[in-house]
Write a structure and sequence with these properties.
The chain is built from eleven helices and ten strands. It has 327 residues and is α/β, with parallel strands linked by helices. The strands form two sheets. A five-stranded mixed sheet has the order 3-2-1-4-5, sandwiched between helices. It has two domains: 153 residues, 2-Layer Sandwich (Nucleotidyltransferase, domain 5), CATH 3.30.420.40; 158 residues, Nucleotidyltransferase, domain 5 (2-Layer Sandwich). Helix 5 crosses helix 6 and helix 6 packs across helix 8. The structure holds 5'-O-[(R)-(carboxyoxy)(hydroxy)phosphoryl]adenosine and zinc ion.
Length: 327
């Protein structure tokens, strides 16, 4: 069963074709990162205009790469939230138009659920129950998954998301945008020798990253001659330690079979390495290109939703603050 996935929730226009939820036939991404870099962050209006320019060529490219025609597809899966309203609208309207014109089933997908399903494209056998740490620009969630569509949110951030913290720290240090990759790069030449407060919020599985950020701001303001690389390394080490420790703790509490990593921050090398090294459970992590926003993960998730009988109709709407919920 071949599914066309469409993803436009933020600043990547993406389309992909996936077979049986696990085999990626194509994965096309038009990144807007250079357009937004000059503003130091995503400008929503610019993002949605760019999506409208890229969406048709990117869908065509994904179909061509996969060597499929409309008649080969079983359904169209599209992200309908969470994300930027204007950006989401482009993808949802394109998906609806194709579904209507080609008489194909439409499947609305939650972007966060999509991130988790990037793990189904890794070729690994996944076993429930599992814990998934979703760390992106907008979320830091610890999710218990007992089966397809069966999610329990065990922990979340109380303030900044992990990716947001990376982006803000990079801005504070004048390292540029997007924050994750530039902090990681700077950290490679630095030492994690600056003590920064780690927020454990004992007794809960929740995260908090605003304290590390405020402390970084104070230290940067107090020390004009700072070694940016050391600050980047210290910040990254603190965030990674909290994420890894809490994820392993919760995996132990629920005695899961596996730990999955998902979302843009899952592209962080020290996070990947530390979690793999410290976890007593098998750890599955998607390749870098499937950690940040892409449409293959949406098509993969769409397949499992479709197989379970969950389709959407033409009333499918964008929901910018869509929550992860069991289906
Ligand atoms: O999942 P994603 O592509 O978009 C959202 O759904 O938000 O995540 C984007 C976030 C950004 O905050 C970015 O700085 C972060 O992922 N990120 C990283 C790395 N690559 C991207 N954070 C840490 N290390 C990285 N290598
Ligand atoms: Zn994302």
């Amino acid at each position: 069963m071949k599914i066309l996935g469409i993803e436009t929730s933020c600043d990547e226009t993406a389309a992909a074709v996936v077979e049986d939820g696990t085999k990626m036939l194509s994965n096309e991404i038009a990144s807007q990162v250079e357009i937004h870099a000059r503003y130091g962050g995503i400008v929503p209006e610019v993002a949605s205009r760019q999506h409208t320019l890229s969406i048709i060529p990117i869908i065509r490219a994904a179909m061509r790469k996969a060597d499929v025609g409309w008649d080969d597809l079983s359904a169209i899966a599209v992200t309908h939230g969470p994300g930027l309203a204007g950006s989401l609208l482009t993808g949802v309207n394109a998906a609806k138009a194709i579904a209507l014109a080609r008489n194909l089933p439409l499947v609305g997908v939650n972007h966060l659920e999509g991130h988790m399903y990037a793990n189904w494209l890794t070729g690994n056998e996944l076993k429930f129950p599992l814990i998934c740490l979703i760390v992106s620009g907008g979320h830091s969630d610890l999710v218990l998954m007992k089966g397809h569509g069966d999610y329990t949110l065990l922990g979340r951030t109380r303030d900044d998301a992990a990716g947001e913290a990376f982006d803000k720290a990079a801005r504070l240090l004048g390292l540029g945008y997007p924050g994750g990759p530039v902090i990681q790069k700077a950290a490679e030449s630095g030492k994690a020798n600056i003590p920064l407060p780690k927020s454990w919020i004992k007794g809960t599985n929740d995260f908090s990253f605003s304290g590390i950020k405020s402390s970084l701001l104070r230290l940067v303001n107090e020390n004009k001659d700072i070694n940016k690389n050391d600050f980047a390394a210290s910040f990254q080490a603190a965030v990674v330690d909290v994420l890894v420790t809490k994820t392993i703790d919760v995996a132990q509490e629920y005695n899961v079979c596996q730990i999955l990593l998902a979302g843009g921050v899952a592209a962080n090398k020290p996070l990947r390495e530390t979690l793999t090294a410290r976890s007593p459970f098998p750890v599955i992590i998607p390749p870098f290109i499937l950690c940040t926003d892409n449409a293959a993960m949406i098509a993969a998730c769409g397949y499992f939703r479709f197989r379970a009988g969950h389709t959407s109709d033409m009333a499918l709407d964008v929901i910018p603050n869509l929550k992860l919920a069991a289906v």
